[in-house]
Amino acid sequence: MPKRSKKNLKEAKDREIAGISIIAVGGLLLACLIFSIYGDASNAVGVIGVKLAGIMKLLAGKASFGVPLFLLVCGAMVFADRYRGISSSRFVGLIFLFFASLGLLHIHLPHSGDYLPEALAGAGGGVLGASLAFLLRSIIGIVGGYIILLALVIIGLLLLTE
Q1: Rounded distance between C-alpha atoms, residue 138 and residue 122, angstroms
Q2: Helix and strand totals (H; E) in the chain
Q3: What is the C-alpha end-to-end distance of the chain, expressed in Å?
Q4: Contact at 8 Å (CB) between 111 and 118?
């Protein structure tokens, strides 16, 4: 019996360490984004923090704040032993929801045929959202793009909440 309780204690400690580590990464990424916008980023989060914020804004634009917030929630769930793994369908739902959000953030922006300048400036959904918006607008137009993106949001929510 004592051997079992030692094993449980070790598993609990490992889970708590993993949860705190995930929370720390999420907090650092959130600080990088906040200080890159509202403060002196190079002094607050250093050169690497400035680069991380730039990469997140480049890829996801306005939705870049979703990544650290997601990590903070996941870390808290792991720490509190509420994380039981994520099914593949829920993961697909999360991916659909994330990419549809990036597309929706970018498809409504006025454009002159070139999505890259807005994406590089961190506007809309970043490079990923710009690519999706460009593809949809080119193939099925803006109304069709909205319909497809909203359908992906609904599908993502259905898969995520199964």
Answers
A1: 22
A2: 7, 0
A3: 38
A4: yes
**Of all residues in the chain, what percent carry a pLDDT higher than 70?**
90
| Model confidence pLDDT, tens digit, residues 86-112 | 677 878 888 899 899 989 988 887 766
Q: How many alpha carbons fall within 13 Å on the CB side of residue 92?
A: 8
Eight-class DSSP state of 39: S
For residues 6-15, average pLDDT = 79
CA distance 60 to 39: 20
Contact between 109 and 131 (Cβ < 8 Å): no
Q: Are 35 and 57 in contact (CB under 8 A)?
A: no
Q: Which phi-psi region, left, alpha or beta, contains residue 94 (left: φ > 0; alpha: ψ -120 to 50)?
A: alpha
Report d(CA 112, CA 21) in Å as an integer.
44
Q: What is this structure's pTM? A: 0.69
